[in-house]
C-alpha cells in the first residue's frame, strides 16, 4: 500500500511517501512527480520518513528524472529515509546521483 | 534441520505485498540482520515482479511458485514458473549510467538481485523454469 500526500510551501513542495513503493504502484509516484513538474515546481522535497519499502520500480522513477531536472534546474531532495530503505539506494550507488539528506532542515539547505 | 515454506503467487503485481509478508515472516527466524532480511525480500520481489510483468503479462490466472528452504546454514529461495522463462544468469544488466541517460525505468531490479544474493542459478527443463537464489546464513 502506498499513499502519497502533497504539501505546498511558499518556495517548495513536499511529497510525503507513506507505505511501500513497488511494481504495482510506482506509476503513482511517477504521475505525482510529473504533475509537480507540469505545475512549475522548482524545488521538490520527498519525505521518506514513512517509506517502509522501495523496489527498483520506484528507484527507477527517481532515476528517470535526474537528467531532466538537471537541465531544467529543478531540485529534488529525498529526506528521512530509514536505514533499510537508504541501504537499497546505496546498493545501486543512487546516493551519489540523487540528493539524500537525513532530515527536512538539511534538505531545505540544499 | 530443514525448514521449508511454499507460496503460490498469482501473476498480479498487487500480490507482491503478500510475497513480502510471506518472506518477512520466514526471514525473521534466521540469523540475517534486519537490513539483510529486507534486502533478500527485495531480491525475491524483483525476480517475481519481473516474471509477473514480462513473462506472464500480469495474467492473474497464472502463478509462480516460491519455495524457501533453510539447510546447512544456507537460505535457498526457489522461484518456479512455466512459460518462456527469464534467464537471469545470461541477462546482461545495463550500466547505471545508461539507465540514467536513457531514462528507462527498468533494468535496476536485476542489478539489485545480483548484488544482494550470494549465488544465483537458473535452470530450464521443458517449459518449467527455476531460478534459485542463495544467501549464506551466519551461525547464530
From TrEMBL, chain A:
Q: Which Gene3D superfamilies did the record assign?
A: STAS domain
Q: Which Pfam families match?
A: STAS
Query: Entry's CDD domains?
Result: STAS_anti-anti-sigma_factors
Q: Which InterPro entries match?
A: Anti-sigma_ant (IPR003658), STAS_dom (IPR002645), STAS_dom_sf (IPR036513)
All copies of domain STAS, residue ranges: 2-110
**NCBIfam families associated with the record:** ant_ant_sig (TIGR00377)
Entry's family note: Belongs to the anti-sigma-factor antagonist family.
Query: What is the name listed in the Swiss-Prot or TrEMBL entry for this protein?
Result: Anti-sigma factor antagonist
Q: Which organism is it from?
A: Belliella kenyensis
Automatic annotation (TrEMBL), chain B:
Q: Which InterPro entries match?
A: Anti-sigma-factor_SerPK, HATPase_C_sf, HATPase_dom
Keywords of this entry: ATP-binding, Kinase, Nucleotide-binding, Serine/threonine-protein kinase, Transferase
Name-wise, this protein is ATP-binding protein
Pfam families, per the entry: HATPase_c_2 (PF13581)
The family database entries (PANTHER family) matched by this protein are listed as: ANTI-SIGMA-F FACTOR RSBW-RELATED
Q: Does the keyword Transmembrane apply?
A: no
Under CDD domains, the record lists: HATPase_RsbW-like
Give this protein's Gene Ontology molecular function annotations. Answer: ATP binding
State if Magnesium is listed as a keyword: no
Q: Which residues form the Histidine kinase/HSP90-like ATPase domain?
A: 13-132
SUPFAM superfamilies xrefs = ATPase domain of HSP90 chaperone/DNA topoisomerase II/histidine kinase
Amino acid at each position: 500500500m502506498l499513499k502519497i500526500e502533497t504539501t505546498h510551501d511558499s518556495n517548495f513542495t513536499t511529497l510525503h511517501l507513506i507505505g511501500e513503493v513497488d511494481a504495482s504502484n510506482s506509476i503513482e509516484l511517477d504521475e505525482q512527480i510529473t504533475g509537480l513538474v507540469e505545475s512549475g515546481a522548482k524545488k521538490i522535497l520527498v519525505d521518506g520518513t514513512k517509506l517502509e519499502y522501495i523496489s527498483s520500480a520506484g528507484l527507477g522513477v527517481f532515476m528517470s528524472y535526474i537528467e531532466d531536472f538537471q537541465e531544467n534546474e529543478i531540485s529534488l531532495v529525498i529526506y528521512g529515509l530509514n536505514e533499510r530503505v537508504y541501504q537499497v539506494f546505496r546498493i545501486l550507488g543512487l546516493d551519489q546521483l540523487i540528493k539524500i539528506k537525513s532530515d527536512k532542515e538539511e534538505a531545505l539547505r540544499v | 534441520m530443514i525448514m521449508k515454506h511454499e507460496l503460490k503467487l498469482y501473476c498480479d503485481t498487487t500480490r507482491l505485498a503478500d510475497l513480502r509478508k510471506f518472506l518477512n515472516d520466514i526471514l525473521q527466524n534466521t540469523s540475517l540482520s534486519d537490513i539483510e532480511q529486507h534486502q533478500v525480500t527485495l531480491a525475491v520481489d524483483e525476480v517475481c515482479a519481473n516474471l509477473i510483468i514480462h513473462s506472464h503479462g500480469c495474467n492473474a490466472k497464472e502463478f509462480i511458485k516460491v519455495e524457501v528452504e533453510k539447510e546447512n546454514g544456507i537460505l535457498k529461495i526457489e522461484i518456479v514458473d512455466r512459460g518462456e522463462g527469464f534467464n537471469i544468469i545470461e541477462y546482461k544488466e545495463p550500466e547505471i549510467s545508461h539507465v540514467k541517460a536513457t531514462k528507462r525505468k527498468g533494468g535496476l531490479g536485476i542489478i539489485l538481485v545480483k548484488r544482494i544474493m550470494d549465488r544465483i542459478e537458473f535452470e530450464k527443463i521443458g517449459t518449467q523454469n527455476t531460478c534459485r537464489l542463495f544467501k549464506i546464513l551466519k551461525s547464530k
